[in-house]
Amino acid sequence: MNMPKQPDSLILRVTGHFLLPLLIMFSLFLLLRGHNEPGGGFIGGLVASAAIALHLFFTDVQSARRLIWLDPRDLLGWGLSIAIASGVIAMFSGLPFLSALWTELTVPMFGMLKIGTPLMFDIGVYLVVIGTVLNILLSLAEAEEA
Questions:
Q1: Residues in contact with 24: Cβ distance below 8 Å, sequence separation at least 6, in sequence order
Q2: Which residues, listed in sequence order, are joined to residue 103 by a DSSP beta bridge?
Q3: What is the pTM assigned to this prediction?
Q4: Of the residues 11, 25, 54, 123, which has the fewest C-beta atoms closer than 10 A?
Q5: How far apart, in whole angstroms, are the C-alpha atoms of residue 122 and residue 130?
Q6: Any residues with CB less than 8 A from the CB of 133 and at least 6 apart, and which?
Q7: Which of 111, 107, 104, 122 is nearest to 36 (CA)?
Q8: Digit-coded pLDDT (tens) for 99-144
Q9: What is residue 59's DSSP assignment?
Q10: d(CA 16, CA 84)
Q11: In 3D, which of 22, 40, 24 has the Cα closest to residue 32?
């Protein structure tokens, strides 16, 4: 039975544990600001995937899989479903596919928020990118361990 690999570098292990939550928060920041300024689901998904890849470097594949809770293929499927649903919502309103629809919500601590189907589409892209990249990375890591 193969023992899980641990990196020889103490610096990688320690900084990896601190960088993981910071990179995930930064990826969510990129996701949420993407429809107004540079950023969005694609780059946010790449940053989140890079955070989990960093975690994979200082742990093993099973630990990385536990970190993401779901199979990467499930993330990919959910992301595609959300992205398609964001386009279909406009069709039910009599507009062309992927037309932007907006609504305003009042949230106690944040005030007035405008949310819409572009954010929903970005969330779908975010999940598709994470699912695709992690599917590739985890498959390669499992093949290396075998």
A1: 48, 51
A2: 115
A3: 0.86
A4: 11
A5: 12
A6: 45, 46, 49, 53
A7: 122
A8: 888 888 888 887 888 888 898 999 999 999 999 999 999 999 888 8
A9: S
A10: 35
A11: 40
- For 12, the token pair is 């990688």
For the chain, what is the total number of helices (H) and then of strands (E)? 5, 2
**Rounded to the nearest 5 degrees, what angle is found at the Cα of 60, between the Cα atoms of 145 and 55?**
130
48-99 pLDDT tens trace? 999 999 988 888 888 888 888 899 999 999 999 999 999 999 999 889 998 8
Alpha carbon 124 to chain centroid, angstroms? 9
Residue whose structure tokens are 């892209």: 125
| Cα–Cα distance, 112 to 138 (Å, whole number) | 41
For the chain, the domains span 10-145
